[in-house]
Design goal:
By secondary structure, this protein is α+β, with helices and mostly antiparallel strands. It has 10 helices and 8 strands. Helix 1 packs across helix 3, helix 1 crosses helix 4 and helix 5 crosses helix 9.
């Protein structure tokens, strides 16, 4: 069951997403309930007034956005009326949260602040995306680079993953014995809590680099004589087989490649914002100075 304070924080979100200075409605200043600090509709957009709730104005643009967020058709009079009624009730709850003191609780303030922050950052991401253009040549170059990185082979691999190196060494010693059934060995260590499974056919980009290098140097049916370290732990690896791998044709993956490049460009824009920003961490500095 939802907690009351969380429910109120959620109902306040739509009203507080664009918090800021008092706005003018139709050329006149919006009436205040009891000062800007006591308003639920901070920074509400201007436009035709559709309702005034305890002195706070609901404008046509605000109602339109609210209705669309609920999947309601503003051209349908019944749905429009329902949307307005629902928005009025949300505003009443938000006003009550302010007047009762619920809105001043730190966790509620954090929820509302984060909702506004995430809404604005999401809008900025959408704006950035609309301005990013990627040439067809850049997409083709990226495709060729990725195809080269993947390589022309894929491997059928099995592995047993350990957190402890000594256990992995023990298992590898068993695995390299000529009469060892590696499937049975995987079952043995799986029963002991280790991760053991058939990885199927994978290419270089689908497994850690250390496993890809080892797989390239093994023969079909061979178990690596020593465990292989990766960021996940220690692997006892068996190469079951190898076969040629052909990447999918350019046109089949073009859209995905374009999205990847746009994501990179977006990440670069965020890095640029961080580079020119003033970001301080007082607690981290204090902790560093205390050492």
């Amino acid at each position: 069951m939802f907690q009351v304070k969380s429910l109120i924080a959620i109902t306040m979100t739509a009203a507080l997403l664009l918090a800021g200075c008092d706005q003018k409605i139709g050329g006149d200043a919006a009436p205040a309930a009891s000062g800007a600090a006591q308003q639920a509709l901070l920074g509400a957009p201007g436009g035709n007034v559709v309702a005034v709730v305890n002195g706070e104005v609901i404008s046509e643009p605000l109602l339109d956005v609210f209705a669309r967020s609920k999947g309601m058709d503003m051209n349908d009079p019944a749905q429009r009326a329902k949307a307005l009624e629902s928005l009025e009730e949300n505003l009443l709850l938000a006003q009550e949260a302010i007047h009762s003191g619920v809105a001043s609780q730190p966790d509620v303030q954090a929820e509302v602040t984060l909702a506004r922050l995430l809404q604005l950052s999401g809008r900025m991401v959408s704006t950035y995306r609309q301005t990013i253009e990627v040439s067809d040549q850049a997409i083709r170059d990226y495709y060729n680079q990725e195809a080269a990185r993947v390589g022309g082979q894929e491997f059928h691999l099995q592995h047993i993953l350990f957190k402890d190196e000594n256990e992995a060494i023990e298992a590898a010693g068993k695995g390299i014995q000529p009469d060892t059934d590696f499937n049975a060995l995987m079952g043995e260590y799986l029963a002991k809590g280790a991760q053991a499974r058939d990885l199927g056919w994978v290419n270089r980009t689908q497994i850690p680099a250390s496993l890809a290098e080892s797989a390239s140097n093994l023969a079909d049916g061979q178990v690596a004589p020593v465990p292989i370290k990766s960021e996940f732990g220690w692997h006892v690896l068996k190469r079951v087989g190898v076969r040629a791998f052909n990447p999918p044709p350019f046109e089949q993956v073009r859209d995905g490649a374009e999205q990847q490049l746009k994501a990179r460009a977006l990440a670069d824009q965020v890095k640029a914002l961080r580079a020119k920003a003033s970001i301080q961490a007082p607690q981290a500095s204090a902790a560093s100075g205390a050492q």
